[in-house]
Amino acid sequence: MKNERGDNPNTALLYETDGLLMEFEAVVTERICLPEGKGYGLILDRTAFFPGGGGQESDSGYIRTSGGKGIRVTRAAVSDGKVIHYTEEPVDEGERITGLIDRKQRISRMQDHGAEHLISGLIHERFGYDNVGFHMSKDETVIDFNGPLSEEQIRQIEQRANEIICENVPVTVSFPSPKEAKALSYRSKLDLYENIRLVSIEGFDVCACCAPHLPSTGLFGSVMITSHMPHRGGTRMSLVAGINAYDDHSKLAGSNAKIMEMLSSPRYETDEFVKDMTDRMASLREENTELKRKLTKLVSDSVAGGLLREDPQGNGIRAVFCDVADMTGLRELVNNCTSVYKGVVCAFLKKESGFGYIFSVCKGRAQSAGLKELADDFNRSCRGKGGGSPLMVTGTTEAGREEIERFFAQKSP
Ligand SMILES: [Zn+2]
To answer: CA-to-CA distance for 321 and 303, rounded, in angstroms?
Structure first.
């Protein structure tokens, strides 16, 4: 193969000059039997099936035999310089067939690919950046440029591209000789001058490309740059054009309609409404934190007061269950208790399964209280795990409240 276009002396490549040719007559010049179960390979004297290349996937479609039988063409590919059409059933050599390209798939790909040329050409002209990576999938086309672009610059390029689409500028194909190619200025990933095919969006872009293209920009429909981000010092962007742009818009509009309904917002103001809501949520979150803090203080005051009434000498080990705070609140509660109570405080916070716990004792009794031994004992008895210092141990347990209370009933004097 000399380059991406292949070297096909036996097959006329109809797609190269007519991107809209979706039905063609041809003769089967060779039939290849593939290994068992893999189907057949057909070579034709002429074809409109694009075998893939330049970032665009191969076509699929059907072959209709002279007897009217439809045979699926799963894909086409260039192998040993020949365009091979892969089929599920055989067709005899010498048979006259009609080739039928999967129209929707091909047109959607040509819309995306044409829009990619247009965007790349505009960015090259305006900023001097090259398209250094290009990948087309069913849902989007991803392009890498070797320079940074701001949101504003990208929207300006997108707007200009859509104006050019609306102007329905011709897209033409030419095959310059190596001498002519050397004298021309065009975008190309490879330094090639031989067997070159140039695709021109007249006045806006010239690019070496092997893929079929739509004959004018109006057929691209529209182009939208759906996302962009800095990538290896340059910019990676995703775009959709034509029918894919419609599909993308349709999904977004569906999502926007749900937001409009939920927030009773006008069609183009959902972002303002969502911003108001997130601002309100942030202030509610602050309010919530403050309320939790106040509640924790109230609860811990009452718990500490209760412990003092029950055991004024502070000899006990007291289990306290609290469901109003998070672990930070629980720590506050424990600190508040140990600031007045001289015994050991074991505080529990209900979790999705089991409890989180903090065992603590006032500083003066850290050495004598045996907190770590108590925690080890608890972890063994109540399927817990955790660790800490002689002053404070934190952990979790899978045990239920009754089981925990039984453990502490045995421990308390
Ligand atoms: Zn191309």
So the answer is: 10
User: Alpha helix locations (H) across 88-232?
Assistant: 103-127, 151-166, 178-183
Distance from residue 36's CA to the centre of ligand 1 (Å): 36
Q: 239, 165 in Cβ contact below 8 A?
A: no
User: Is position 362 within any domain?
Assistant: yes
In the chain the first and final C-alpha atoms are separated, in Å, by 91
Q: What is the 220 CA–ligand 1 centroid distance (Å)? A: 14
CA of residue 258 to ligand 1 center, whole Å: 38
Does residue 199 surpass a pLDDT of 70? yes
> Do residues 136 and 235 both lie within one domain?
yes
55 C-alpha to ligand 1 centroid (Å): 7
Q: What's the angle, vertex CA 367, arms to CA 361 and CA 372, rounded to 5? A: 65
Protein residues within 5 Å, CB atom, of ion ligand 1: 54, 209
> 40 falls in which pLDDT band (50, 70, 90)?
very high
| Distance (Å) from CA 213 to ligand 1 centroid | 8
Q: Do 90 and 120 have their domain in common?
A: no
Residue in 372, 386, 307 with CA at minimum distance from that of residue 345: 307
The CA 152 to ligand 1 mean position distance, Å, reads: 26
Q: Are residues 121 and 206 in the same domain?
A: yes
Residues 138 and 256 in one domain: yes
Containing domain of residue 302, as a range? 294-411
What's the pLDDT band for 189 if we cut at 50, 70, 90? Answer: confident
Stretch 277-296: mean pLDDT: 92
Res. 6: pLDDT tops 70: no
pLDDT, mean of residues 105-125: 97
Give how far Cα 193 sits from Cα of 3, 51, 196, Å. Answer: 10, 22, 6
pLDDT at 80 over 90: no
Residue 74 forms part of a structural domain: yes
187 Cα: distance to centroid of ligand 1 (angstroms): 10
> What pTM did the predictor assign?
0.75
- Considering the domain architecture, whether residues 28 and 129 belong to the same structural domain is answered as no
Q: How many angstroms does the Cα of residue 199 sit away from the middle of ligand 1? A: 8
Number of folded domains that form the chain: 3
Give the mean model confidence (pLDDT) for residues 370-381. Answer: 94
* Residue 59, domain CATH: 2.40.30.130
Are residues 302 and 185 part of one domain?
Answer: no
CB distance 399 to 354 below 8 Å:
yes
Residues 148 and 253 occupy one common structural domain: yes
Span from the CA of 143 to the centroid of ligand 1 (angstroms):
12
pLDDT, one tens digit per residue, over 223-248 is 999 999 999 999 999 999 999 999 99
